[in-house]
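dude i think i finally got it to work??
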Amino acid sequence: MNSTSGAAAATAVLLLSCAPFTVATAWADPEPEPTTTAVASVPPDGQDLHNITYRARIDGVSRGALITYKINDTQVQSADPTMLPGRVFEVQTVLTDPALAGMQVSIQWPYSANLHCEILVDDATVAQADQFIRPRLTPADDDPDYGKLMCGAPLINPAGAGSGSGTVAPADPAAPSAPSQAVSDQPAETPPAG
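look at this
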């Protein structure tokens, strides 16, 4: 009897010590009804928005695939999906200027593959590129773009570049031009005295 009462006591202690770890059912309030509010789909400056679809495919066995694309007018985002032959990476975003849509598909050295990318603006293909990346025995130190495929607009605007529209306002022909002065390293000549 002594061992039976000891076992019962041990079981009671075990149950009481494990009680805080058991899942209890809690009474919860019902979910409130969702409120519907209209969200303005037009940007505050009145520009039209364009649906952008980026698609990338890597035909070949390679590692380290990196896909970088514009997510808005000023920012880029990168994804490193596992790309098997035939698999298509697709992402959608919205841009105010469709001329800014751009992406880059890259793979790591020493792999080789066919890289494919395309950009759709409002369901119309505006850019498409294909490139075969050949295998190399040594890293491509002399070619920083080895293993990369650019598609569409550049991802980073050079310093001083505008919004990406690519147009420059012509100069006003009626405006007076500033006098130009040539700067030379040679000393100025003095006229002969006489």
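The chain has one helix and eight strands.
im so relieved honestly
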